[in-house]
Design brief:
- This protein has 890 residues and is mainly beta.
- It is elongated and about 115 Å long.
- It starts with a strand and ends with a helix.
């Protein structure tokens, strides 16, 4: 990228707190030569884009820009005066610099006079080859400084930081013309002159120059805005464009008032009394089902409205009523006679064998579930006691609201396979028999929004065809590679991910799969770890080239089986807004809520003990979004349903997003989980194989993990302007077991999520984690390298309790180590991922380690800039900065 004679190139970035930049300075003004400088700490040198001197009197119309010297002379008459002018252009320096010095080399001077070289800042920038004494606005400049010239063959330096910074902040051209002249004297002026080396000087090292220390804001701006076309994921830190995150890639969520919706709104209360119902479950589900059919028939989104109840009571829903509805009285639709009459859905047919993973099921497109507002409309899951609870009606692995297609949970990574087989050597493997994959014709190693596929292009209908598969513009495709042996080894992950051989009684071939794309391309890979993958919409097809709706965010290597295939049909355009939602806490027969780690059956590992309260709470959630494109949850909050002093708002997990793209979660509070045990419990926000999703202005307090991003199909997600932490609440404090003793931070949880952004997040008694770890998944498929190319931006640490923060300082496992007396921590491991931490505020330090056990001889290359200076970031939010640039065409 050329910048007024500068070409910036980011060199390798190490964990130390400096950035090595190479500045390639090209003398463009006269087009004669190139000079290269290299400097560290964000320093470099600018040559003038133009220099000249001018002379008065009979020579006032002459030009001297091609001379090898610049001459300054003072005399009483203009005919003998000479002045020097230097023009500098720094239009790509976007923020004030730390320091700028003008350096000039005095090659010769007259003798016998006391000389001071004076610096003036000119109020014009039109300096060029035609400039002379007559046409320059010589007097339109002001004095800045002067230096005593005591000898020749010497460099003299002016501090021009103030001049440069004023130009940066107050002008559009960001060009400056500096004038140099000699001081006035009395007496003979014959020898009152000096020469400076010019841009045409034979010795290039003596040319005038600006030495600039950019300052970290300029370095940051360059990293964010530089051309990324020649960068690659393996070697370069890439601050990717995260502005694609959220509903419809950054568009605002639709705002519709209930009174303006007319016929497109269905009131849940109109669906009561149609059939056998014990609570509000069936009425809500009937309204949703009716709305889906109407949306299909009309082509318009429909709202399912839950008005607040006059007495402030919640809408009560239960899995038992949902099962009854879907098993024994499933409604029958005649889509040829669709009406808006609620009684239209009162015709039933029996449907056996339905197994629900949610109480309320949104299974079709273009539906908004809308209340009257937080703390006005309440939705409550009513499981509360254990003694009379049947397992099939418990919330174990289920959600209150589920958004997913009718043909069960979907998984982007899942390919059709055979049952496990044995090869000739007796090793186990799965054979992939899915016919959808189309091989990539070439690898992708950098940020691109195009891929090349094998196949035949049909110019008639604009489709690309391969092996019976046809792709067209508008199709959603999964683009992926596999966790092959080469992929695992190149990421130094074989100690965690393994699908070959047997060791210590563990048969790792249990995770082995084979896929044959054609006779020349056959691969073995780790079926559990998945490999890297992205969901993208095809924006255009030109021959074998496919243009995508958002960039590829990590390498897709042909050597690791890179393919594309058409995704199964997603649900589209779903909203949940303006309501409060909670579970009744699990209680014993005396109506007393169970407390994590205090009550038997409700401890860390009890989640798989049948009959225990932990078993019934395990992996439940409030809202689960699966296989959704373009959706939102806005203005939603949990609430305390029993007011018993424990403040439990939900059983285990809050909001789960899985195998979904472009979801916005905005202004949502998920606080006070009841069960925080291992195995996937106590997570406020979970992103599993999520692409380009946005969590904005969310809050999570009192949890095991406030947010957790996991699996290798998760990328491009943004958590912005949000708060996470622990606060005094319930018996955790009253009984001395403080809530944050159970918190394990906000983390990248497992299996290689790539290129996600944590931006403008505040932490109270909490911390952030991006680390390699041996946990979750079992031998051969441990969490391993959890993230790569991850960015933390403008992180704030708040209140901290001054005591050991679950410290295990003697532990060999860095993940089990907490730094003492630090309110927020980033444990950073990107290996060859080149992540970045840009801007931190508050008290405490960034935690870092380099364990040979985990990293061997590999470097940790994370970049850290503006530590404890987050309040001085010029780009205070990376997401907002990038969104403005993209939506307004840079």
């Amino acid at each position: 990228m050329k910048i007024n004679g500068i070409k910036f190139r980011i060199a390798k970035l190490f964990l130390q707190q400096f950035l090595a930049l190479s500045f390639f300075l090209c003398q463009l003004s006269h087009g004669n030569d190139y000079i290269e400088f290299s400097a560290k700490n964000g320093t470099g040198t600018l040559l003038p884009t133009f220099d000249t001197y001018i002379r008065g009197g009979d020579y006032a119309s002459d030009t001297y820009f091609s001379e090898p010297i610049l001459m300054a002379k003072w005399a009483p008459s203009d005919g003998f005066k000479r002045e020097i002018y230097l023009k500098f252009n720094f239009s790509e320096i976007n923020h004030p610099v730390e320091k700028a010095e003008l350096k000039v080399y005095v090659s010769n001077s007259g003798t016998g006079t006391e000389k001071y070289i004076e610096l003036y800042k000119s109020n014009f920038d039109n300096l060029d080859k035609t400039s002379n004494w007559d046409n320059l606005e010589r007097e339109n400049s002001y004095f800045r400084n002067r230096l005593h010239v005591d000898k020749t063959k010497k460099w003299y330096s002016f501090n021009v930081t103030e001049i440069i910074n004023w130009q940066v902040e107050n002008t559009k051209t960001k060009e400056v013309v500096l004038k140099l002249k000699l001081n006035e004297i009395s007496g003979s002026t014959a020898n009152h002159w000096l020469h400076l080396a010019s841009l045409e000087a034979e010795t290039s090292e003596l040319k005038p120059k600006l030495d600039i220390k950019l300052g970290e804001n300029n370095i940051i701006h360059e990293l964010v805005t530089r051309d990324q076309s020649n960068l690659n994921f393996k070697d370069d830190l890439i601050i990717q464009d995260f502005s694609y995150a959220g509903y419809k890639q950054g568009l605002n969520i639709p705002k519709r008032k209930v009174e303006d919706l007319d016929s497109n709104i269905l009131n849940v209360n109109d669906y009561h009394g149609i059939g056998d119902e014990q609570d509000d479950t069936i009425a809500i589900q009937k309204a949703i089902d009716h709305a889906i059919i109407l949306a299909r028939a009309t082509g318009y989104p429909h709202y399912v409205y839950l008005p607040s109840k006059s007495n402030g009571e919640p809408y009560q829903v239960s899995l038992k009523e949902a099962q009854k509805y879907f098993e024994n009285a499933r409604h029958f639709w005649n889509e040829n006679t669709v009406t808006s009459d609620p009684f239209w859905v009162s015709h039933y047919e029996k449907s056996e064998g339905v197994s629900l993973n949610q109480v309320i099921w949104i299974w079709g497109d273009d539906i908004v579930l809308k209340g009257d507002g937080v703390n006005k409309t309440y939705l409550l899951g009513t499981q509360s006691t254990i003694g009379n609870l049947e397992e099939k009606y418990s919330m174990r692995k289920k959600s209150i609201i589920g958004v997913k297609p009718k043909n069960r949970d979907q998984d982007w990574a899942k390919l059709t396979r055979t049952n496990q087989q044995l090869d000739e050597e007796g090793n186990r493997y799965y054979e992939i028999v899915d016919t959808r994959p189309i091989p990539l014709a070439s690898s992708v190693y950098g940020v691109k929004n195009t891929i090349e596929l094998e196949g035949t292009y049909n110019s008639g209908d604009g489709s690309l065809n391969y092996n019976g598969n046809s792709l067209k513009t508008g199709d959603y495709i999964v683009i992926r590679s596999f966790a092959t042996r080469n992929f695992i080894d190149s990421h130094a992950a074989a100690s965690w991910w393994r699908f070959w051989g047997e060791e210590d009684g563990v048969d790792y071939t249990n995770y082995r799969a084979k896929i044959s794309l054609n006779p020349q391309r056959s691969y073995e890979y780790h079926y559990g770890v998945q490999g890297v993958g992205f969901l993208r919409r095809i924006e255009g097809i030109n021959g074998s080239s496919i243009t995508l709706d958002s960039p590829i965010r990590y390498s897709l290597a042909v050597s690791s089986g890179a393919i594309a295939y058409k995704a199964n049909t997603h649900i589209n355009n779903i909203g949940i807004e303006d309501l409060s939602i909670s579970n009744m806490p699990l209680q014993n027969d005396h109506g007393v809520s169970y407390i994590y780690q205090q009550n038997e059956g409700f401890k860390n590992s009890d989640y798989n003990t049948k009959g225990s309260p932990a078993y019934y709470a395990h992996n439940s959630s409030l809202i689960n979004l699966n296989y959704l494109v373009d959706g939102w949850i806005k203005s939603v909050s949990t609430f305390d349903p029993v007011l018993d002093g424990e403040s439990f708002n939900f059983l285990s997990n809050g909001i789960v997003i899985s195998n979904s793209k472009n979801i916005t979660i905005e202004d949502v509070k998920v606080n006070n989980s009841q069960y925080l045990g291992e195995g996937g419990n106590g997570y406020a926000f979970t992103l599993i194989n999520a692409n380009d999703c946005l969590l904005s202005s969310v809050e999570a307090k009192n949890h095991r993990h406030g947010y957790s991003i996991l699996k290798s199909f998760s990328s491009g997600n943004v958590i912005y302007n949000s708060n996470f932490g622990a606060v005094a609440s319930g018996s955790y404090y009253r009984n001395g077991l403080e809530m944050h003793d159970f918190q394990l931070g906000n983390d990248y949880h497992m299996w290689f999520s790539q290129s996600n952004l944590i931006d403008s997040v505040s932490l109270t008694n909490d911390f952030l984690i991006s680390t390699a770890r041996s946990a979750s998944g079992g031998a051969g498929r441990e969490a391993g390298r959890t993230s790569i190319q991850s960015i933390f931006w403008n992180i704030e640490g708040k209140q901290y309790k001054q005591a050991a923060f679950w410290a295990r300082e003697t532990s060999e496992d860095p993940y089990q180590t907490r730094w003492v007396n630090s309110p927020w921590i980033v444990l950073s491991d990107s290996l060859n991922g080149l992540g970045a931490i840009v801007g931190t505020r508050g008290e405490g330090d960034i935690g870092r380690y380099n364990s040979e056990k985990y990293f061997g001889d590999h470097e940790i290359k994370d970049l850290i800039l503006m530590e404890n200076m987050g309040d001085k970031l010029a780009i205070d939010s990376l997401y907002q900065f990038q969104l403005e640039r993209r939506l307004h065409d840079n």
